[in-house]
Amino acid sequence: MELQNKATSLWPNFFNVTMVQIRTFHMTWFAFFACFFAWFGIAPLMAVVRDELHLTKSQVGWAIIGSVSMTIFARLFIGWLVDRIGPRKSYTWLLILGSLPVMGIGLAHDFTTFLIFRILIGGIGASFVITQYHTSVMFASNVVGQANATSAGWGNLGGGVTQFVMPLLFSVFVVGFGFSEALGWRLSMVVVGVIIFLIGIGYYFLTQDAPDGNYDDLRARGMMPEKKTVTGAYWTAMADYRVWMLFVIYGACFGIELTINNVAALYFADYFNLSLVAAGLVAASFGLMNIFARTLGGLFGDNFGSLWGLRGRSFWLFMCLLFEGIALMIFSQMQVLFLALPSLIVFSLFTQMAEGATYSVVPFINKKALGAVAGVVGAGGNAGAVLAGFLFKGAMDWHEAFLILGMVVTAASFLAFFVRFSTRQEDEERAAFAIANIQTLRKRADKANAELEHALNAIETRKVAVASA
């Protein structure tokens, strides 16, 4: 059953938070931003952690793998849960419970305890699934790609911001307050955990599950399928080969981004001899592209969809992945900073556009199990990051590791041609797209008419005033 009253536009009403769709959009991207920030908050401080806990290169590699491995299972579970209890309750509990290991990592005293907390923190990476789900149920097909891409992109921005904010916060505790470095990085993570906890409370009170209300109310009014149907729909989605094609594809874009977020600061510190803060700033340039790059991926996905239907969205996805793989191979061969930095930015552009393009396709795979599809595809991103992480834990030179990843991404791009849709679904979505566009134009016309009527009334009032004078 299709949810009603979805928003048919994003940008004209972008600051109108009285609209539940827009208010939810802003809350969900901000919550994901905070989760992403906390998820990778320790990454730019790893040089300090490595020295204090005496971690070997292999142990650092296991920490990288651990940070994304837990998220695979968390995303699979949250995809089922969000279909069942709704995004509002799911996000609230995830934020509140996820804040505990973020603060708790400050108790780590050796590699084992550090790895355990690093794995547990990875659970908040499931926030991505809820973010994509929540924007998908709030926005119509003509704008859902843009809404999904922007909410996820601005959320992913947390991975770039954390690269320079966490070293600065660490410096405040060490230089400003005179704490030791060992205590400084621990207190920095505690601050982040407290913020996550507070956002969880805010999410519960400031959002709702769907445009017309929360899932409990909608089910009581017969406007949604019962909870008992969720599990069956979940397994139906799991049996769809297209879901697994997108699983691999998302591993080749978001999985790469996760890997870069984990290794970039160390890579530039070790291979280009940069300081902790300088390496963090350079690494941040990769994540900061999320300000607009992922939005472009979703925007062009919607545009390709308007011109060539659902197959147009798949073709755009292929193009993004292909150029991502080529750009990554070029970046891997850069030996000097002034060449490495621009090639990193170009590579980042296509990586994040590919992510936006992926989730401009996801909402159309199975609308009855949207959470399941979003969860499985999202888990693919983390599975890709886990596999990529093994390249960085051994003796392999990191230049070679990036080259291999670029080749894999290029090969994975061709899987986009296997994400196909039936003629019936193509026709249905074209009709839905057209209806959404008509609704948008009608709303704009109504607004223009209201403004014109107001202007005419003002003129008449002035005429009467002049005549009276």
From TrEMBL:
Its main location: membrane. The chain crosses the membrane at residues 29-48, 60-78, 90-109, 115-133, 154-179, 185-206, 243-268, 274-293, 314-331, 337-357, 369-392, 398-419. It comes from the Bacteria. The keyword Coiled coil applies. It holds the Pfam family MFS_1. It is a multi-pass membrane protein. Residues 424-462 form a coiled coil. Residues 24-424 form the Major facilitator superfamily (MFS) profile domain. Keywords: Coiled coil, Membrane, Nitrate assimilation, Transmembrane, Transmembrane helix. It is found in: Membrane. The keyword Cell membrane does not apply. Belongs to the major facilitator superfamily. Nitrate/nitrite porter (TC 2.A.1.8) family. This is MFS transporter.
